[in-house]
Design goal:
Rossmann fold; alpha+beta; four-stranded mixed β-sheet; 146 residues; 5 helices
Length: 146
């Protein structure tokens, strides 16, 4: 019984591992950009978009929000992996709680953890998602709607 279990587990591992090392179905195009949030005094919100290059039709999208002191380059390994498997993924950088705000000023982290900044982050995500929808519908053929 133990030998059968060992063989079954080994076979399952080999089959799973072989697919994990297979080449992903899509190459990834990375696009840097900035979006202007007119609702918040024309605040500039940098983003980094990962798109599956050969994918056809609308793609599911993942919006990544970095943690305190992060930026749009965070979790590149994860977003690249998602895009290589058919998702569009976007990393949004949040001015006020990003790398320059937290590490550029000795007291920057105090402002970055304030409740007001947290509320603004959530508002920005809602507005940013709306901006993606608008851009996708207004600009057919952009990388977001391939």
């Amino acid at each position: 019984m133990t030998l059968r279990l060992f063989v079954a587990l080994t076979l399952a591992f080999v089959l799973t591992a072989s697919s994990a090392f297979a080449a992903p179905p899509f190459t990834v195009e990375t696009i840097f950009g900035e979006w202007t949030d007119a609702a918040r005094a024309s605040r500039v919100v940098p983003y980094k978009l990962y798109v599956p290059r050969e994918a056809q039709g609308p793609r599911p999208i993942v919006i990544f929000s970095h943690g305190l002191g992060g930026n749009r380059d965070g979790a590149e390994y994860l977003l690249d992996h998602l895009a290589a498997h058919g998702y569009a993924a976007v990393a949004v950088q949040h001015p006020g709680s990003d790398t320059p705000a937290v590490f550029g000023d000795p007291d920057g982290w105090k402002q970055a953890i304030s409740p007001g900044v947290a509320v603004e982050r959530f508002r920005a995500m809602r507005n940013f998602a709306g901006g993606l929808t608008f851009r996708a519908s207004a600009c057919p053929g952009t990388p977001m709607v391939r």
